[in-house]
Amino acid sequence: MADTPTPAAPRKRPGVFTLVALAGIGAMAMNVFLPSMPAMAIYFDTTPAKVQLTVSLFLAFNSVFQLIIGPLSDRYGRRPIMLGCLAVFCLATIGCLLAPTIETFLVARVFQASVVAGMILSRAAVRDMFSTNEAASMIGYVTMGMAVVPMFAPALGGWLEQFYGWQASFALLLGFGVLILVLAYFKFAETNLTPQPSVMAQFRAYPELLRARRFWGYVLAAATCSGAFFAYLGGSPFIGSAIFGLKEAELGAYLSTPAIGYFLGNWISGRYAVRVGVNKMIVWGSVLALAGMALNLALFTLATPGPMVFFGLIIAMGLGNGMCLPNAMSGMMSVRPHLAGSATGIGGTIMTGGGAALSLLASTIVDVESGATSLLWIMTICSALPLLAIGYVVWRERDIQAAS
Predict the structure, then answer these.
(1) Contacts of 346 (CB under 8 A, 6+ apart)
(2) What is the pLDDT of residues 134-146, one digit of tens each?
(3) Digit-coded pLDDT (tens) for 192-203
(4) Which class in CATH covers the domain with range 13-185+197-403?
(5) Of 117, 106, 50, 112, nearest to 84 (Cα)?
């Protein structure tokens, strides 16, 4: 019973393209402007560290909004919450374009984080319609499509910066935001056909979810796995520009490399999750990510390779994340299926809250003297921790089976 999804009528199911678009706009908002950060510091006459807050604050408020959006969608449905958050995102993007100071820009950027609804509610919609392994497979296909966005977004942002300035990336976000809002209005039908009685009932149900130890195992697997990527977001723009001397367009292209592995990892997850199971997929994804990061760290500890080596081995992290994350997300939502929205909200809050801290840590400790090694240490440790988390889940499942 715990693995049975709420049935949704086939004609009401949002299509894969709609789910990909809704999830993808959040990924674009996160990284399309990264090559513009040095230019933004000059434009606003501020420090690079303050501009870095555009990433850290975005991730931090991503986590705050997820904690609210999940229960609201369990109570009022996925569709109205999705449409409202997309409208807020479009207004906030206009605020970014018109901001006269970095402080005003950061306030608008905080409200841009509402776009996270596209990512978490597309996953919750999948869990509404499918069982655990099927949901992991479907989430894998959805995030595989979504991974196309970070493949080209930083490169496109670097090109726009070079020829039109930093505002062009945010004009692009506004255009896509309006288009996806229209798409959601016409194509994202409601999938939560058994809404919860009240929002307070959802919050009162949190202890039930938080007492589930397998839920925490999946959450920690997802959080530590994605932590390597968030640390990469915080430190890699500096490494690319200050250490490797890359220009904006080059930097944008190199920053896209994790998405190559992520795309492939999501394809593997979509293809094999039903057959292999979520736990084994998390294990193999974590092993691959750890191997890539450990090799990268070893090479930069012994020598000083170029950007091809550094960014090339980052693909392994993307590959591992693409296998680990869809299965961990599906696992955390399957522990208490009637609280799927709350589960993805709490899980996403922990993931992005931790990601904001790691992003800020990476931007703080990475410097010319330490080179890439300080960032690679963080990423290697983050890649190892999911193995401990999923090991606990497996042990707990065996314990439950033995008791029953």
Answers:
(1) 66, 67, 70, 206, 209, 210, 219
(2) 766 677 667 666 6
(3) 777 777 767 667
(4) mainly alpha
(5) 117
